[in-house]
Amino acid sequence: MSRYRIAVHITPRRGILDPQGRTVADALHTLGFADVRDVHIGRHVVVELDAGDAKEAERSTREMCNRLLANPVTEDFEIAAVEAA
Amino acid sequence: MRFGIVTFPGSNCDYDAYRAVVDGIGEEATFLWHKDHDLQQSDVVILPGGFSYGDYLRPGAIARFSPIMREVVSFAHRGGPVLAICNGFQIACEAGLLPGALLRNESLKFVSELVSLRVESTDTLFSNRYELGQVLRIPIAHGDGRYTADQQTVDRLEGEGRVVFRYIGGPGDADEWWSPNGSMRAIAGIVNDAGNVLGMMPHPERAVDLLLGSSDGLGIFESVLARVTA
Hints:
The complex is a heterodimer.
Chain A: E1 2-12, H1 19-30, E2 43-51, H2 54-69, E3 75-84
Antiparallel strand pairs in A: 1-2, 1-3
Chain B: E1 2-7, H1 14-24, E2 28-33, E3 44-47, H2 67-77, E4 82-85, H3 87-94, E5 101-103, E6 111-119, E7 135-142, E8 146-148, H4 151-159, E9 163-170, E10 173-177, E11 187-191, E12 197-200, H5 218-228
Parallel strand pairs in B: 1-2, 1-3, 3-4, 4-12
Antiparallel strand pairs in B: 5-8, 6-7, 6-9, 9-10, 9-11, 11-12
């Protein structure tokens, strides 16, 4: 068993109204970032766990996302990084 | 008839629900602790409002794993009536008892006010004492009440008469749909496909006596009583 640190990005699903993202996009436009097309605000979750290898750590984290960390109705998730802790 | 009211850490409308049952309709109520495994022979379960588990992760996301929720879900699957109010609605969605999810209000602000709801379906366990189209004055108090589901789900809810309450009273037109929180199609309350679970963001338990500003919420408790004791 080795210890892994896994980072997960959870974002509102495309097409679902994201008022925080919209408000921040408006603020960025006001600041002069006229090229900003869209902003989405989500959560960044870091899980540390023990697993046989990186693949197993990732598989386990994916299941955590499906069952708890992300809401399958409204959110998408992406495993951003798996690294030995 | 006995109402079981679940108390999660962070529930804050459990006593209001208790008073609505005991004083409002003169029935028995008992509190069900989140760590318990026993519904104490309740005929109806209420998932009350509040901020269970501090709304950590997402409102309702942690509460659905409470020991008592296993019993509530199996009670609901057996056809037992479940009234899920505000945070209870969020928990019921997270637990898969109702479709969809409640997201952060479109305004990004907590909204606490008396609103108008239109009764959209009277053929349910929870609304049979109302008239179709009747307008109720019931308070809301939430930051995460924007009902959201995929288009197909919302169409199905509408088609099957499962949208029970809708917000109305937009500026300029009192009869027009209007979402104080950005809910799709101004949905304020829905039932599951079997009709025995009602989820609603407004608080009927806070509208059971004119002293509270409205007694329009009593009809929900009376509807359940009429149907379950029938």
